[in-house]
Specification:
The strands form four sheets. Strands 3-2-1-4-5-6-11 form a seven-stranded parallel sheet, with helices on both faces. Strands 7-10 form a two-stranded parallel sheet. It is an alpha/beta fold. It has two domains: 2-172 and 223-251, Rossmann fold, CATH 3.40.50; 190-221 and 254-328, UDP-galactose 4-epimerase, domain 1 (Alpha-Beta Complex). It starts with a strand and ends in a 7-residue tail after the last helix. It has helices at residues 11-22, 55-64, 79-84, 86-107, 140-159, 190-199, 226-235, 259-270, 294-300, 309-322; strands at 2-6, 26-30, 47-48, 69-72, 111-117, 162-168, 170-172, 205-208, 220-221, 223-225, 246-251, 257-258, 276-279. Helices cover 37% and strands 16% of the residues. Bound molecules: uridine-5'-diphosphate-4-deoxy-4-fluoro-alpha-D-galactose. Uridine-5'-diphosphate-4-deoxy-4-fluoro-alpha-D-galactose binds next to helix 6 and strand 8.
């Protein structure tokens, strides 16, 4: 299929582009390079430096490239920032996405794969999280993703749009061959910060909160390899053949891992100490978030290849040690 990957130069999008090509599809990328990296996209992949909300420009790409399905990864995703700058998040994550959907409708493109998040669940009452549990986001970032999920449901009903929304848990790791990986600016995620603390590129890691009601007092998260996430996006294609399909899937390994366990695994993989300090809780961090991903396994035949935290961190370490400056700026 000809697949438009919106945000294909970003972390998860760029891994998906490679998986699409490996599976015999034809990816086409649009990315405004605000957070994406041109070098994350192989030279042979058609690339357009376009904003997703620019309906006319996006419409031309859809038409010229004979796009059959759109995957949408482009979003602002800093939870803390979303609290302080909600307009930025609503405009980019909701309004611009509606522009993209309108361009698709105008050009008759009826299949859509959307990056949603476990942040749409808010602070869950029960764990592991199942797709049918209540969604009550506690920050604008999660709310913008839920708003798009709801718009997609309405479009499926009204116009027969077929979509899958994937609720990611903690995307981590890098391509197995070390060619591309995680490079955020600013970086806020635990694994890259722990690796950089170990190599001395950054100051000691701050452990945000050691008094959570968890076995070792630190937060539990569900780290899932970025290539495993990407494979689910392709595994869903068959389900989108049915007009009006409205599908939601959690993507996680189902294994809760604490911050301390991540640090231990980084030390094991790198063979270096992770200098650290204990710091207060970070605002907005739920104590535990992990997935029941049995629906994706059952319906998509999805299975994770990287099922230990060490195997995920191993790929991140390969990328970061070979590219300490990321893609370069
Ligand atoms: N953490 C630290 N020190 C750090 C960074 C993180 O202790 O320097 C802790 C956090 O408190 C959290 C865990 O490590 O307990 C993971 O934090 P990340 O920032 O790596 O990831 P989050 O779980 O906060 O964020 C992820 C996604 C978001 C999504 C969110 C939903 O990256 O896009 O889950 O809660 F919104």
């Amino acid at each position: 299929m000809n697949v438009l990957v919106v945000g294909g130069a970003g972390y998860i999008g760029s891994h998906c582009v490679r998986q699409l090509a490996a599976a015999g599809h034809r990816p086409v990328v649009i990315d405004n390079l605000v957070f994406g990296h041109r070098r994350a996209v192989a030279p042979g992949v058609p690339f357009y430096d376009v904003n997703l909300g620019e309906e006319t420009a996006v419409g031309s790409v859809l038409e010229e490239e004979r796009i059959e399905l759109v995957m949408h990864f482009a979003a602002y995703a800093y939870v803390g920032e979303s609290v302080h700058e909600p307009l930025k998040y609503y405009f980019n994550n909701v309004v611009a996405t509606l522009g993209l959907l309108r361009a698709m409708r105008a050009k008759g493109v009826g299949k859509f794969v959307f990056s949603s998040t476990c942040a749409t669940y808010g602070i869950p009452e029960k764990m592991p999280l199942v797709e049918t549990m209540p969604q009550a986001p506690i920050n604008p970032y999660g709310q913008t993703k839920l708003d798009v999920e709801n718009a997609l449901k309405a479009l499926a009903r009204a116009h027969g749009l077929s979509f899958a929304a994937f609720r990611y848990f903690n995307a981590a790791g890098a391509a197995e061959d070390g060619a591309i990986g995680e490079d955020h600016d600013p970086e806020t995620h635990l694994i890259p910060l722990a690796i950089d603390a170990a190599t001395g590129r950054r100051p000691p890691l701050q452990v945000f909160g050691t008094d959570y009601p968890t076995p070792d007092g630190t937060c539990l998260r569900d780290y899932v390899h970025v290539d495993d996430l990407s494979r689910a996006h392709i595994a869903v294609f068959g389900q989108l053949e049915k007009p009006g399909a409205a599908l939601f899937y959690n993507l996680g390994t189902g294994t809760p891992t604490s911050v301390r366990e991540v640090i231990n695994a980084v030390e094991k993989v790198t063979g270096k100490k992770v200098p650290r300090t204990e710091a207060p809780r970070r605002a907005g961090d739920p104590p535990a978030l992990y997935a029941d991903a049995s629906k994706a396994r059952r319906e998509l035949g999805w299975a994770v290849k990287f099922n230990t935290i060490e195997s995920i961190i191993g790929t991140a370490w390969k990328w970061h040690s070979a590219h300490p400056e990321g893609f370069g700026r």
